[in-house]
């Protein structure tokens, strides 16, 4: 077993209004019971954060957001700051998800600003990285992913490392039903950890959770989580079904 505590995070994407979110959360809470050996985070849309936050109140589940603007306040119509998230008891924030990179033109420099702002405001960033199918076929996976980690973490200090979470999400595996084999994922996770060791030192790098994401479900969670550098999962589709999400948490327990 690993020294790192597993973390299972649910990314609801643009699904569930506030009351639907509460319903799903209550289902998850009741099925999870008192599971404390695994860290669990759920990331609803901004509009459901407050009500979902109340619904997880007595449980061990933590609250995450799916995005954040790096600025503290000001004329940024439609955006949400770290402090606004903190005021709703949010502890984690997904940053640089591939959908934001691809559909909303977020680049590594902008994502890096968000990572620094999240850390400065005591939010734990879940920095997402991952290659496209084209990049994998061109055998550029390790280069691409290493570059995203380096650029995303520029300026992060070793002291802040314990609050970092990385999510490796091959773009071709997200929402497609295609999963990286455990060996394919492990190879990339190991490469990410060696980049982290360069950036913050080996001892700190050994404590950083590296999650796998991409069509993870109860049926494939066991063998992915058994890999030495896979420390949990970032779950999309399966996070919208209480039984599936809890099944993945149980696989990690
Ligand atoms: C995600 O978008 O973070 C994700 C992993 O999605 P899915 O599980 O649906 O592939």
From TrEMBL:
Listed EC numbers: 5.3.1.1
Catalytic activity: D-glyceraldehyde 3-phosphate = dihydroxyacetone phosphate
GO molecular function list: triose-phosphate isomerase activity
Domain of life from the UniProt record: Bacteria
Enzymatic class: isomerase
Keyword Cytoplasm among record annotations: yes
Primary location: cytoplasm
UniProt keyword annotations, A-Z: Cytoplasm, Gluconeogenesis, Glycolysis, Isomerase
Keyword Cytoplasm set for record: yes
Gene3D superfamilies on file: Aldolase class I (3.20.20.70)
Binding site for substrate: 11-13, 175, 215, 236-237
GO biological process, one term: glycolytic process
Described purpose of this protein according to its UniProt entry: Involved in the gluconeogenesis. Catalyzes stereospecifically the conversion of dihydroxyacetone phosphate (DHAP) to D-glyceraldehyde-3-phosphate (G3P).
Protein name stated in the entry: Triosephosphate isomerase
Name of the coding gene: tpiA
């Amino acid at each position: 077993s690993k020294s790192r505590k597993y973390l299972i995070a649910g990314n609801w994407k643009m699904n569930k209004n506030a009351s639907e979110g509460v319903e799903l959360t209550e289902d998850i809470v009741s099925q999870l019971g008192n599971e404390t050996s695994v860290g669990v985070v759920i990331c609803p849309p901004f509009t459901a954060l407050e009500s979902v936050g109340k619904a997880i109140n007595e449980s061990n589940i933590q609250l995450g957001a799916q995005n954040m603007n790096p600025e503290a306040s000001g004329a940024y119509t439609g955006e949400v700051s770290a402090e606004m998230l903190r005021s709703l008891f949010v502890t984690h924030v997904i940053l640089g998800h591939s959908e934001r990179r691809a559909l909303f033109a977020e680049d590594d420099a902008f994502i890096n600003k968000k990572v620094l702002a999240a850390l400065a405001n005591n939010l734990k960033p879940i920095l997402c990285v991952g290659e496209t199918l084209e990049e994998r076929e061109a055998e550029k996976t390790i280069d691409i992913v290493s570059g995203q980690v380096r650029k995303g973490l520029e300026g992060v200090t070793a002291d802040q490392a314990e609050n970092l979470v990385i999510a490796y999400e091959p773009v071709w595996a997200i929402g497609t039903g295609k999963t990286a084999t455990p060996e394919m994922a492990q190879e990339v996770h190991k490469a990410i950890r060696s980049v982290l060791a360069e950036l913050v030192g080996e001892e700190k790098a050994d404590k950083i959770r590296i999650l796998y994401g991409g069509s993870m479900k109860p049926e494939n969670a066991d063998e992915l989580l058994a890999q030495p550098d896979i420390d949990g999962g970032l779950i999309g589709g399966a996070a919208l079904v209480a039984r599936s999400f809890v099944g993945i948490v149980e696989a990690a327990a």
